[in-house]
Amino acid sequence: MALGKLRLGVNIDHVATVRNARGSAYPDPVRAALMAQEAGADGITAHLREDRRHIGDSDIDRLVAALRIPLNFEMAATPEMQAIALRHRPHAVCIVPEKREERTTEGGLEVARQENQLAHFIAPLRDAGCRVSIFIAADRSQVEAAHRIGAQVIELHTGAYCDAHHDGHFADRDAELARLREMAEFADSLGLEVHAGHGLTYETVAPVAAFPQVKELNIGHFLIGEAIFRGLPASMAEMRRLMDEARDPRVQP
Predict the structure, then answer these.
(1) Which of 9, 22, 42, 159 has the most CB within a 10 Å radius?
(2) Which of these is catalytic: 14, 98, 198, 216?
(3) What is the pTM of this model?
(4) What CATH number belongs to 7-251?
């Protein structure tokens, strides 16, 4: 029996990165989101960073107004971002760590050391009807802490696994993949919905997609880069093919 269909969330942040490099009005990330929606995306992810380096406030306003599929609003655990989320009430909010000097999100959120603060932070978001996801490394203490504070979803950070693969460090890759698998199983046993993402490519997606506990992958930078060469719908179609194939026991080795 084939596993349940794996959802694909498309992150459109880096369309805004290209736009902002010239300070122009194009390319429009909302146009990309609508194109992804028409091409079969199950959701759209957008990260409104504190420094507004890519997605801006008006992008979130327009995404909320235009999308027919769920919006996953990535945000730091700050009062400003909480207020924006409560105003828009997106389908989901994903709490991520944020450092101003980093190029991209470098690791998972440290939940275990700030449980009380995060529990109080996410409570109003849950009360407003948002599904709360916590972006964490594949670490048992972080999974347990996310469960204790009342998160409904965890998103496992796949960046270390993907980096090890692309750097040719295959022993490290396999060890990280094993940790991801173990923590997906553990989180599922606690009743948490399991998502995964960060750095996934055509080469690295299948092993993660094959985890039966994972319900959704969020992929952005690679798809937007690949879209330069083949277009966004075709880039998504290939990713979807690889995800579906990984869930099909008829093609498993």
Answers:
(1) 9
(2) 198
(3) 0.94
(4) 3.20.20.70
